[in-house]
Amino acid sequence: MSTTKVDLYCTVASLVPFPINEEKPGLIPSRFVIPASDMKTPKVLTVGTARHYVYLDQDRGSLPVRTASTEVAESIVQDYITSQQRIEPDAHPAIFWVPGEKTSEQVQKEFAAQIADLLKRQQRWFTLICQQADDDWAKYHRHTVVSDIQRKMAQILGWNPEQHEWMSPETTAVGVRCPACGSLSMMGAVICSVCQCVLDPEKYKNLQFARG
Question: 84 CB contacts (<8 Å, ≥6 apart)?
């Protein structure tokens, strides 16, 4: 039986507003990248047959083993979903795969119902993760317990920063965010402990004078 193009390729489609970078050590190719979506137009990645090597013994060495495109596509989708913070099983990123090589337009047209359902699940995922940020902020009142992804999700949901203080992380009662590397330093810090950027020029001058 001949192998068709559908057998050789699959398409991973993402409506996730964050770039996806999946690494599969041992697999060739091993890196799969999908750009961030605007949540209206799917970003697609064509996945072909991959391979990996299985060691047999010293005499025979390693045997190349074929990995079907369906297995690769399924792995990309499931591994990405599993790696994300989850609160409910049915609330997760809007990413899926389909057999065959598809353009973004074809995916949007042929799988409109599935996309609509996934976008609802993704919005629920955003809401739950942001509610978790609300809970963590109320408990710890520290910006370090809230991720930049949670802040991005809150912006996408249209949340008001005045009602969710953790959405504005630049300065806090417990620290100052470095303008160079983004790390959070203790309030009153003169120099960033990570990249050595000067956070307070006036105090830094006094320190230099004191050294002299």
Answer: 92, 93, 125
95-104 per-position pLDDT tens digit: 999 999 999 9
**Cα separation, 131 vs 3, whole angstroms:** 49
Q: Is 94 helix (H, G, I), strand (E, B) or coil?
A: coil
Place of tokens 């105090």: 203
Rounded to whole angstroms, what are the CA distances from 32 to 21, 23, 28, 80?
6, 6, 11, 11
8-state DSSP, 165:
G
Rounded Cα distance, 81 and 184, in Å? 28
The pTM of this model reads 0.75
Using one digit for the tens of pLDDT, what is the confidence trace for 184-198?
Answer: 666 567 777 667 778
**DSSP state, residue 145:** G
Boundaries of every domain in the chain: 5-122, 175-212
Backbone torsions φ then ψ of 65, nearest 5 degrees:
-120, 135
